[in-house]
Amino acid sequence: FFFSSRRRHTRSLCDWSSDVCSSDLSWELIAANPPAQKNVVCVMDWGCDTDHPDLTGQTVNNINLVTGGSNVLPINPNVDKHGTSCTGQIVALNNGLDTTGVSPDYTQVSFVYIFSSVSGYNDQPASRFVDGIQHAIDQPNCVAISCSFGGGSYVQSWQDAVNDALLYGRGGNAATGQLGLGTLVVAAAGNGPCNGGCAAPPNRNMLPASYDGVMSITAVAYNGGNYIRAAWPDWGNKLFAAAPGQQTPGTDIHGVDGYTTYNTTLFGGTSSATPITSGVVALVAAANPTL
Question: Is the model's pTM score more than 0.70?
Fold first, then answer.
């Protein structure tokens, strides 16, 4: 599954010479047939520092569903760096700040500010998720929606929105019934009942990862030359795939922890694995836009 990202300052996701991975061949295919336009991944989260030098020009059509505007900068930069890190996992440029996204050359992020605070996920209006999905569907080159959050109870309108993304994303039209190529919804499986502090049971019902049709992503940890399943992330038969989720270098925001310049952070959890997977989806779509 892993697609070598050529991320600098990190161990590669696989052996570039591996016949199993064939990542060199994959990169050659994309380079020989670059997409006519950059693919888009919608990231739904708490805010994104679009002024970060590694993210300059890497986001497009951002929307703030809390205010109704286009400003998606974090409200509280001292605590809210989650969305910035998620975005960086996909499209961060390498400007000497020790981080590179999975797909910086062929992808842009359309950031969807969906939550009003970092305090919780359950108290947000369900309509924002639905509106965020529609925002993605409205972009004909949006190949994936990355959701690094979870919790709450089942909401039928959310399941309907996921179905619409799969049916009408990338060129479809729900009003006329015209099907599109489909926009995938990628969601974090969860960091266990103790948020990483204890072992997770299998098949915990985390939403939105457990909605039908969603690609549920867990995290693996690097250990002695191999990636292994860590004890803390959620896992089980609902999973689609796993991706690195332990101390992955990510974009940080201005002023964090007393710093006065932009810097990097060690990101992790299924929150990291989910955008990495979304970036891989964008690379696959770049290699074969008709999938």
Answer: yes
